[in-house]
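Go through the following before class.
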Amino acid sequence: MRRFLEVFKVRILLIVLVSLLILVTIPTNTVAQDEGCVTAKCHADIDTKEFVHGPVGAKICVICHNLVEGKKHKFEFAAEKEELCFGCHEDSRDMMLNDHLHTPVANGNCVGCHDPHQTDYRFSLKGNAADLCYKCHKKEEFNKEFVHGPIGVGDCNACHNPHASGNSDQLIQPAEDICFLCHKEQAGIMEKKHIHQPVEDDCTSCHNPHSNVAKFLLSSNEPELCLDCHSDFESFSTVEFKHQPVDQGNCSQCHNVHASDNPRMFPKPQTELCYSCHSEMGDFMADQPNLHGPIKDDDCNACHNPHGSGYFRMLVNDFPEQFYNSYSTDKYSICFDCHNKDIALDEKTTTLTGFRDGDINMHYLHVNKKVKGRSCKACHQVHASSQEKHIRKSVPFGKMNWELPIKYTKYEDGGNCVVGCHAPKDYHR
């Protein structure tokens, strides 16, 4: 191959020298002799456009074509396929070593995109860059409702190398980096603690890089796009109690789709995120000195399923809606995920609970009844309270839901409770 190139270059040099000698020594008595291939009768318009290929401009056709005889002749090339072009464009030869070649390049068909003689377009292209691409790539895939900026201005080369690349799809940068060439404001997401897997791999997992009918060039709309990977969440569409963002298919209301410093890619710490919608709860919590453990831990999910649930108030486990209930541990499963499930089973105890008068189990006394056992929320505010032990400030009573006040005072060995119109009651362990 190297010997062929050396011979080829020597041949071109000799042809140029001979051509110059002919121009100097032979009388200019014919147009054909003066102009070579370009005469008033043959190829007269071959160098009239804005961008003329170098050999054509120099009127040295034999750089690319073999010398021929006769008026009717074939345009035989001086070398095969891409080797003809590499005769001059030797610096482009290394592109053939790339893993990903544009099909015309791989086929040695440079003239698939470039006009070898003249054109009105830069780089001797046969047409406008985008229109040229559409001759092979279906245009309808690139002109949907939402169009990527480079496509909109016809600049395919903003992302793709038109010849070859070491990156898939002939990208000018690796897939995980190329988007940041323009979207510099998003580059910081790669420094976040929690990065969405598609962002680490390839933005095109979620975005169509050319055009699409979904906004943000998403491959499909929420939540269908999310469910492509998170298919195990599809069941939440059928649960009885649905979280509104999930019901509306708006996953991005609670999750940052790219990256976050918060677990589960929350855009804010969890309780702060929940208070964005549940502002009345946030206002209430701000004034309470005694927070329930999950609230302290910034973990609303400990009790609530943020997507949806078959349980009242989207709880993760069973808890009675009613104020009065017959007692069973299963009815309070959510409480017993953390608390001792035996706390109200025995009428007398010295170990199961601190809420006892001597050995009389006051939890059993209040809760463990066949008909009118009081639920946990009768005495405890489940989120937070101004009183210790999360004791409520008031309790609903009667058909009119009167709010009877509760006053609780903690002792070292027990406490004192005043409920509504009842006399104060002490208990001592």
